[in-house]
Amino acid sequence: MNPLVRSAVALAACTGLLVTAFSPVNAAPAVPKKDQAVQQDHAMGSQIRKHEGGARLRVKPRKDPSIQATVAGIDVSGYQGNVDWAAYWNQGKQFAYVKATESTGYVNPYFAQQYNGSYNVGMIRGAYHFALPDRSSGAAQADYFIAHGGGWSPDGRTLPGALDAEYNPYGSTCYGLSKAAMTNWMLDFSDTYRARTGVFPVIYTSTSWWNQCVNAGFSTTNPLWVARYASAVGALPYDWGNYTMWQYSSSPIDQNQFNGGYDRLQALAFG
Q1: Catalytic residue selected from 52, 102, 134, 166
Q2: What is the pTM of this model?
Q3: Quick check: is 166 catalytic?
């Protein structure tokens, strides 16, 4: 064989070996197209920032003279991976919410490290669920959330689960639901969670999204966690006269303020 040809054949064989060695033979099978949406990890507030702005703002909340005390906290999702909880504790963060689930097809792969790690450093922690109301019923998503880390126990260190209700990542703002239908979905989730755990879930939302998509108030049952990336909390969603938590910044991580002293945060954890 011509030496040049022999060299080309050897090179091709070697290259083939390299391709074989590094090809993803053990990669997970492709997610069916209809299930791709629920495999995504949408962090709390990701769609609110997309629609309302504030993604890169480092906001410092202005002191409200009507509030006697506040408690600092953060929230995390799978995007943060394994979290250095001691570092955040040393920064004065005393509570945390951890994403557990989305719809009925996604579980945060870092949930155990994040949920248990925050607890182990001394934080009061809770779990949250990113809602996709056009995928399944409120009851089905509440059950899925509870089954995958979203439960509650009256130990004074576990906050009620939170329902993350915000803009649709895949289409129309209100998921193609009328205000009446969305209200019923929220009630279905909230009532199911309450029946199974003994407490109402916290509702996380923005004033703009809630007022566009929901036509009833939840102020007598559900604590409000409002998202607004500014130095003041501003107008609250329909029917709520006060808020329990405020997500005021997403930089360098989602920053939250509890509206009350540490004893009131403990009271919420006790139900």
Answers
A1: 166
A2: 0.83
A3: yes
